[in-house]
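Interim report, section 4.2 (structural modelling).
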Amino acid sequence: MALVRCEFHKPTGRNYEYVKVVEPVDPPNEAVICGIKGCLKRGSVWLCIEEAAAYNKGERFFLSKPSRKAGREAETGAKIRVMQ
Ligand SMILES: [Zn+2]
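Predicted structure of the assembly:
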């Protein structure tokens, strides 16, 4: 599942396998917010290997991953439409 993170909270570490970053439609899109607790900055959409492959085949909707680091702020995911 995709992650939404701002420029200051990019996913790092061996637990992440995000290989592609795409933007929500109509950038700069202030409606899609970083999943880190307390952060209200505009987010980009990080795609894992399988999602990046789907993107390359034309998929433009992705589910955001509920964030352990966000508490109740991001307890459920959302569908996000991304740019071509
Ligand atoms: Zn952030």
